Amino acid sequence: MMGIGGFTPLDGFMTHSDWQGVCDGMKMANGLFWPIPITLSTDEVTAKNLNAGDDVALFDPERDEILATMKVTEKYSIDKAHECMMVYKTTEDEHPGVKMVMAQGPCNLAGPIKVLSLGGFPEEYGDQFMTPAQTRAEFEKRGWKSVAAFQTRNPMHQIGR
């Protein structure tokens, strides 16, 4: 999603200060509204062997390809239960968001990415595939001033804030 612009204006995975701000107030460190952390986690052994300034490959084993590279700017650990409670208002393992967060590695890596592949989206969706930038251009071409979107699977949400 980041590679096709689905998380615009993010250019990479969140720093600790962005993670903290999103969890505690739905705002990144720069004040931009953002409701759910966008992080890249890894195991402790991998994180131990990485330093700020290192370039890493983001590999998709299902497609057997490198999707992007990332320049590591920071590595940090988080309180997963805190993230789950603040974002999903629960720490119950049955919640799919909680399950995902709790299954992630204990260390997060932050940094900007350089996209190398669209990860199969164009092949999967054919003529219906458009990046957010392409959809915005199409809206402008058609003269549309107001556009509504509805996502039926895994919508971003927070209740009671």
Looking at this protein, list some descriptive labels.
6 helices; 30% helix; 161 residues; single chain; six-stranded antiparallel β-sheet; alpha+beta
Explain the overall architecture.
This protein has 161 residues and is α+β, with helices and mostly antiparallel strands. It is built from six helices and six strands. Strands 1, 2, 3, 4, 5 and 6 form a six-stranded antiparallel β-sheet that branches. Helix 3 (80-88) packs antiparallel against helix 4 (96-103). The longest helix is centred in the last third of the chain and has 11 residues, at 132-142. 15% of the residues are buried.
Radius of gyration: 17 Å
Indicate the proportion of strand residues.
15-25%
Segments where pLDDT lies below 50 for 5+ residues?
Answer: none
Helix/strand structural class? alpha+beta
Question: In which range does the helix fraction lie?
Answer: 25-40%
